[in-house]
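Researcher: I'd like a structural prediction for the single chain below. Treat it as a standalone chain; there are no partners to consider.
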Amino acid sequence: MNFNNYSKYAPFVLRLGIGFVFAWFGYSGLTNPDMWIGLVPAWTAAIAPAKTLVLIHGAVELIGGLLLIAGLWVRPVAAVLFLSLAHTLTILKFGPVFVRDIGLLLATLAIFLRDDNK
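Model: Treating it as a single chain, here is the predicted structure.
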């Protein structure tokens, strides 16, 4: 079997996979914000309550993930999600979740860098 025939589907599969991850975490943030509040740094209280920030972040991730899945505004959406995840990484400690998120960050960057994005 010649898998080179399927390489054209790789960007689509990557976009679907990353879109699903962001949509799931966004949905989780919107439906169970209390689970994520503990990750919000205390200094952000000057900006808004932690729950509000989690809800905003969840909405951005859910909408962004759905737009990636739909293939709409792929490059700008990937840029926003990349920056959002890069910011999230600045508040996480090194460990398994951090390493996983580095992989997701780079996959999101790969989506942004594709030259055939809309």
